[in-house]
Amino acid sequence: MRPATNPQNWGASMDFPVDAKVAARLFETKTGHRIDGVLYADPQAMAAMLAITGPLPIPGLERTIDSSNAVEFLTVDQFSAYPDANAANDALTELVRDLFEKLTQSTLPAPAELGSSFGPLVKSGRLRMVSLSSPDHTTSWAWSVSTTASDRLRARTSLR
Q1: pLDDT averaged over consecutive 10-residue blocks of the chain (160 residues)?
Q2: Where are the extended beta strands (E) located within the chain?
Q3: Claim: this prediction has a pTM higher than 0.85
């Protein structure tokens, strides 16, 4: 899977906390910066994020990406939209940064709606997040929605 060359494969393993630790080490080796955690979001998870943020311009192209076209663009169109792999990689890196910047500035839906949108993505492994707070402790996040009158999000912690 060549994780140093193909970071898009980091989420392919069944043991994502281990993948996250490897990704963090590779990132630190390449950039000199230590990270606190790793987030994996596949094209369907990115489409769900775009449902919150609204459309974004696609760097280097005269078009936008939104929740309705994200999966198609990220899995098919991007490979022919740019002159070479480096241009595509640079553009997608910028797109992901723009998405997360806008997501952090957006008003989030109610917890029940977040759980409905992202819970199935977490359950199916399409959205994964690991906090690397210390070498022997990993926090994996999962969303669930209470069936009571009050909405809740829940984090599940696993010690490794």
Answers
A1: 57 74 88 90 96 97 98 95 94 95 93 90 88 63 46 50
A2: 37-41, 56-57, 64-65, 127-134, 137-141, 155-159
A3: no
